[in-house]
Each structure stands twice: as C-alpha cells, then as structure tokens.
Amino acid sequence: MASTITLSVQPRGKPIRKLPKELQIASDASGHELYNALAQQSGCSIHRLRVTKGSDGSLVSNTKTTTVHDTGLRDQSVVYVKDLGPQLGWRTVYIVEYFGPLVIPALFLYVLRPYVYFNFDKPLPQPSDVQALICALLTLHFIKRELETIFVHRFSLATMPARNIVKNSAHYWILAGVNIAYWVFRPDAAAATDNLNPALLYSGLALFVFGELANLNTHLVLRNLRKPGSTERGIPSGFGFGLVTCPNYLFEIVAWLGIYLVTGLSWSVLLFTIVGGAQMASWAAKKERRYRKEFGDKYKRKKFVMLPGIF
Ligand SMILES: NC(=O)c1ccc[n+]([C@@H]2O[C@H](COP(=O)([O-])OP(=O)(O)OC[C@H]3O[C@@H](n4cnc5c(N)ncnc54)[C@H](OP(=O)(O)O)[C@@H]3O)[C@@H](O)[C@H]2O)c1
C-alpha cells in the first residue's frame, strides 16, 4: 500500500530561494509529480530543476512511468536539487541551429557574392551550374532537418540550457554554413566549372539521395518507438539497425560524402563531415552502452556503433 514519505531536500550549486527543506510525497507518486511538487514549492520552472539522490548521486528522472519508490527513495532519504539556469526548448534550439546553414549558401552564392568575393577580378563570373546544384543540396538538407525537428522527432527532454544555443549554433552556422559556402562558391573553386567529372557528380548525387532518404527512414523508425508526449525508449529495428547502433548517423555521413564528391572534393565539406562525424561517433558509443544497460538480454549487442566494419 502506498505511504507518504518525507524527503530531506538540499540545494546543489547556487541556492534556490524558496526551496523547501523537506517534501512530503506519496511513495507511489511519479518522478514527474516529485519534480512538479518541488517546482511549485520553490517557484522555479520545472524545466530548470535537476534532482539527484543523496545516497549515490544518481538522477531521479522526471518521468511519469517511474515512481518515487522505484527510484530507491525512502522516508528521510536526501535529494539534491540543482537549478540548471535559463532553459530553451530543444525544438527552438535546433530550429535556430539549422537556420544559418539553410540560408547562408544562397546568400553567399547570389545576394552577398560581390561583397564576399570583393578581392577577385571584376566582373565576377556567374555561379556555375554545379555551384547552383550544391547550393540546392545544402538548402534541401537543412530544410529536411528543420521539418524533421518540427514534425518527426519526439524528444525526451523538453529543454536544454539556453547558453548551449551559442555553442551549437556556432558549429552549424560557421562550419556548415560560412566555411562550406565560402570555399565551394569561390570563383576559383573546383565547383566553379560546368564540367565536373561525371563520375564524381553522379556518384555524389546518388549517395546524397540515398543518405537523405535512409536517414529520414531511420528518424521515422525512432519516432514510432515513442508515443506522443512520452519519453519511453524502445529497441529500434529496421533498415540499417542490424548493421550499427545509430544508422541515422551512418546515413547522415553518407549524404555528406555525396556532397563532398559533388563539390569536387572540397576540404571544407570534408572538415565539417569529420567534425560532425566525431561528435556523432561519441554519441553512438554512448547510445550502445545505454541500450545494453537499459534492455539487457533483450537487446542484441552491436559490434559497430556507426560505421560498419570500422567503428
Ligand atoms: N552533421 C552533423 O554534424 C550532425 C550531428 C548530429 C546530428 N545530426 C543529424 O541530426 C539527427 C538527429 O540527431 P540526434 O543526435 O538527436 O539523434 P538521436 O539521438 O538518434 O535522436 C533522434 C530522435 O529520436 C529519439 N530517439 C532516439 N533513440 C530512441 C529510442 N531508442 N527510442 C525512442 N526514441 C528515440 C530521440 O529522442 P531523445 O530526446 O530521447 O534523444 C530524438 O528525438 C541525426 O540523425 C543526424 O541526421 C547531424
């Protein structure tokens, strides 16, 4: 039978003004109800709070599926409550991140061309067909990312610290936006020709189309593992999931390799692909560890997390 327990509440990090010293809560209340009660009593937004157990420092999840009792909290247990600072919705952050590399290619290739390439002999040559094609591929890639952010992904966390938006946006606006657009759209770039090696052009296009469609399919599989509004996780299966833990990252890299070929092997695209690939590789390794821990024997362990036969 459910009983009411008293938790000893202590702040972690900077003080939270109205944080209660104790909290009475039913042992069968959910993690979400615990967060809600702390948010109401402290007057702090629920999204800013992070609750950990005093006994071992592990996170008490803000979910509706785990009860206070399930987390191991008992009468007189200590919980630490941390104020994570101002938060922004994940969707907002992603929309802002992708907006830069969505508009920068067309701005550099057409609108800002005379200013960006001011130091080249005048008159500047018109953008080549290959450059116009690359601009379309880059724009399409990031429109797809925006649409998936709004309509496909079901995120488990509602928010992230507001300051992350600067760091994350810099990665996309500078490395995917300015870096690629500047080098690939230069009047003397390999792509400034209408006679790009057809082998590069067509194999690049094929990789891009395949990578984008397969990546979208993976995102749809992940979406269907979670009911709307919930944070549950499932074991994904389907195209690519037998090969690696995170086929969405694999196909993302395939699409960028396609762009790399169409640009006539621009190092700027390779640089972004390697930096993004390294980040995704570290997330994929973490994801494999998480699946093994969360699903135990039900999960078929993967030998490779992102690149079949390599990593
Ligand atoms: N080019 C680059 O530098 C670069 C870098 C990173 C990402 N990307 C692109 O951005 C895409 C999204 O990245 P991401 O890191 O957010 O991918 P992700 O971790 O695979 O997550 C994609 C979505 O699926 C959910 N999800 C993941 N695994 C799940 C599971 N087992 N059960 C239920 N839902 C699950 C995630 O929710 P949660 O909120 O729970 O995670 C999230 O909403 C990538 O696939 C890639 O195309 C590009």
Protein architecture, described:
- With 311 residues, the chain is an alpha+beta fold.
- It folds into two domains: 4-85, Phosphatidylinositol 3-kinase Catalytic Subunit, Chain A, domain 1 (Ubiquitin-like (UB roll), Roll), CATH 3.10.20; 88-298, no CATH class.
- 49% of the residues lie in helices and 10% in strands.
- The chain has helices spanning 31-42, 90-111, 113-116, 129-151, 164-184, 198-223, 247-262, 267-295, and strands at 4-12, 22-26, 49-53, 78-83, 87-89, 159-161.
- It has a four-stranded mixed beta sheet with strand order 2-1-4-3, covered by helices on one side. Strands 5-6 form a two-stranded antiparallel sheet.
- Helix 2 packs antiparallel against helix 4 and helix 6 (198-223) runs antiparallel to helix 7.
- The radius of gyration is 24 Å and the shape is elongated.
- It starts with a strand and ends in a 16-residue tail after the last helix.
- 28% of the residues are buried.
- The model has no long low-confidence stretch (mean pLDDT 95).
- The structure holds NADP nicotinamide-adenine-dinucleotide phosphate.
- Residues 153-157, 215, 222, 225-226, 233-234, 236, 246, 248-249, 252, 276, 279-280, 283 line the site of NADP nicotinamide-adenine-dinucleotide phosphate.
Please indicate the count of domains. Answer: 2
Give the uncertain stretches in residue-range form: none
Q: Radius of gyration over alpha carbons?
A: 24 Å
Specify the helix fraction band.
Answer: 40-55%
How can the largest sheet be summarized?
4 strands, mixed
Mean pLDDT over the full residue set:
95
Strand composition percent: 5-15%
| Ligand list | NADP nicotinamide-adenine-dinucleotide phosphate
* Number of helical stretches of at least 4 residues: 8
Question: What gross morphology would you assign?
Answer: elongated
The end-to-end distance, rounded to whole angstroms, is 49 Å
The structural class is: alpha+beta
Query: Total number of β-strand segments?
Result: 6
Numbering strands along the chain, what is their spatial order in the largest sheet? 2-1-4-3
**Strand and helix order:** EEHEEEHHHEHHHH
- Quaternary assembly: single chain
